[in-house]
Structures are given as structure tokens and as C-alpha cells.
Specification:
alpha+beta, Beta-lactamase, 2 domains, binds 6-diazenyl-5-OXO-L-norleucine, glutaminase activity, Glutaminase, Beta-lactam/transpept-like, EC 3.5.1.2, acetylation
Length: about 300
């Protein structure tokens, strides 16, 4: 039986068709440049356990910066508010890979979702986990009940071979005393986390605890306290789309995290989570069709009105 959610997804699927070809697939990581651009998937997981999907919602894609959301959650669980000694919580207003603020701000990145901040998060986790890739995979496998979930070796190597700017940032922060491990080791872990492959349905499921006061529905695990989940959502709203965060808040108004693989995971508190994927990006490195699809979903559903 079709529900109104199915109808909204079908409408959005129709509406995005003329938008293919208007953005550009990320090409700074050679392995990502080969992804077929004309793909679109969208999945919704509701806190009451219902789920919905349209298009390529079951196709695996490179989650890229969406991994920063999950590594940040793991680091918060590990060291709590001590994390704010090493990272700020303000929007940067700059590109995701910008390093201009680091010099005047003493090697403290503006927030955990720009690359500099995510590298510090991975540095924190590298101190604790001998095999961070497995710790992250185990968490994501638990949240999605998908034992086969993995990272893609070719994508990780391709990014690692071209990670000059991230490496420079890591060394720069080390010069300020804000980096503990060797930048090489942290970059290995960072490139693996970015190369994790998941589908829209899996990502919507993995993030559902953020819509549900920190409690994961499938596993029954209290991933974060309700207070911590609310705070993660606040950071996602203000910093999750980099220098497009203000525009995204205006158009969509949800806590969300984007990735250059073309995925976006969004949280609708107390209702559910949405993941949309389409590989072509806009000028700021966020999925062009993904942003449109989320904006339309919010218009059609009326969810999230304050
Ligand atoms: O650090 C990088 O360059 C990437 N692997 C991740 C960047 C990313 O996904 C930015 N998001 N829009």
C-alpha cells in the first residue's frame, strides 16, 4: 500500500530527472571521478521502525565526509567534553579543506566536521584504537545490522596517494601541539574511514539514534545520552554542510552531514532520518540533487516546522 511518504519520494524521483548533468562528480580523488553520475537514491528511516526508499537507495557509495559524523560520535563517547580543548564548535564559513584559519587560531580547527577538525577527531581515536578502521566498521555494522559493511581499498589508496593538503594540515596542527600521533598513521585511518561504502538505507538506519534521543532502534543501544545527541544535532545544523551551512539551514533546516561522494544524511528529530545520494556536486562540494531532494521533502512533508 502506498503511503504519503512513498508518494513524496516518487514525486521527488520524477522531479530530479532533469537535474542530472548540472553538477560535477568529485574528481580530486581519482577513484571517485569514475563513479557513474546519473544515479539517485533516497531512503527514510522513521523512529517508529517504518522505512521507505526510492531509486538507487540500496547501491553502495563512498560515504566520505559523512564518516566524520560517526567518528565524532565515537570520540565524544570516548573523551566527552574534553574534545573542546582541541576543536571549536563554530561554523568556519570556509571550504571543507581550507586551512587559512588554523594559523591565526593556533592550530585549533573551527569545528569537528571541516577536514582539520575531523583529522583531530581521527587523531584522538587513533590514540585509543590500534585498528580504528575495525572499531568504526564494528560500530556501523552494529547500527545497520550489516556484517559485510567495509571500506574500499582502491578508494582509500587513491585518496591517500593524493592527500597532500590533509597531510599539510596535520603537520601544521602538530606544530601547534594539537596532534598526538604521526600524521602518516592518522592519514591512513582517515582515508579508510572516508572510503567506507554504505547505501542510503544503511546510512539512514545508522544515524537513527540522533533522531531518537541517542537510542538506536535496531540494537537497543544507547549510543549517546539524549543531551549529547541534541548537541551533535546542533553541530550538524551549523557546521555539517561547510560554507553552505547557512544556505542549507535556510532551504532545508535540518541537522545534516554531506560528503563528496554525493551522500547527505539528515536528522529530523523525533521523526526519523533521511539519506539521499546523487554523485554530482555543486560548487561547494555538496550533492546538487541531494540538496534539492531534501528541500523538496521538507516542503512536501511539512516536517521540521518550528
Ligand atoms: O578529506 C577529503 O578530502 C575527503 N576524503 C572527504 C571530504 C568530503 O567528503 C568533504 N565533503 N563534502
Amino acid at each position: 500500500m502506498s503511503t504519503s511518504v512513498d508518494l513524496w519520494l516518487a514525486t521527488i524521483f520524477e522531479e530530479v530527472q532533469p537535474l542530472f548533468g548540472k553538477g560535477r562528480v568529485a574528481d580530486y580523488i581519482p577513484a571517485l571521478a569514475r563513479v557513474e553520475p546519473n544515479q539517485f537514491g533516497m531512503a527514510i528511516a522513521m523512529v517508529d521502525g517504518r522505512h521507505y526508499a526510492v531509486g538507487d537507495a540500496h547501491v553502495l557509495f563512498s560515504i566520505q565526509s559523512i564518516s566524520k559524523l560517526f567518528t565524532f560520535v565515537l570520540a565524544l563517547k570516548l573523551i566527552g567534553d574534553d574534545i573542546w580543548q582541541r576543536i571549536g564548535r563554530e561554523p568556519s564559513g570556509n571550504a571543507f579543506n581550507s586551512m587559512v584559519q588554523l594559523e591565526t587560531e593556533h592550530g585549533i580547527p573551527r569545528n569537528p566536521f571541516i577536514n582539520a577538525g575531523a583529522l583531530v577527531v581521527t587523531d584522538i581515536l587513533t590514540q585509543r584504537y590500534a585498528h580504528l578502521d575495525l572499531a568504526l566498521l564494528n560500530f556501523l555494522r552494529r547500527m545497520t545490522d550489516s556484517p559485510d559493511l567495509n571500506w574500499n581499498k582502491e578508494v582509500a589508496k587513491s585518496e591517500r596517494d593524493t592527500a597532500h593538503r590533509n597531510m599539510a594540515m596535520a603537520y601544521f596542527m602538530k606544530s601547534f601541539g594539537n596532534f598526538v600521533n604521526s600524521p602518516e598513521l592518522v592519514l591512513d585511518n582517515y582515508c579508510r574511514q572516508c572510503a567506507t561504502e554504505m547505501s542510503c538505507t544503511q546510512l539512514a538506519q545508522a544515524a537513527i539514534f540522533l533522531a531518537n534521543d541517542g537510542l538506536d532502534i535496531g540494537s537497543g543501544e544507547q549510543v549517546l545520552t539524549s543531551e549529547a545527541a541534541r548537541r551533535v544535532n546542533a553541530l550538524l545544523l551549523t557546521c555539517g554542510a561547510y560554507d553552505a551551512a547557512g544556505d542549507y539551514a535556510y532551504r532545508i533546516g535540518l541537522p545534516l552531514k554531506t560528503g563528496v561522494g554525493g551522500g547527505i544524511v539528515a536528522v529530523i528529530p523525533n521523526i526519523g532520518t533521511v539519506c539521499v545520494w546523487s554523485p554530482e556536486l555543486d560548487a561547494k562540494g555538496n550533492s546538487l540533487i541531494g540538496g534539492y531532494a531534501l528541500e523538496r521533502l521538507m516542503q512536501l512533508s511539512g516536517w521540521g516546522r518550528m
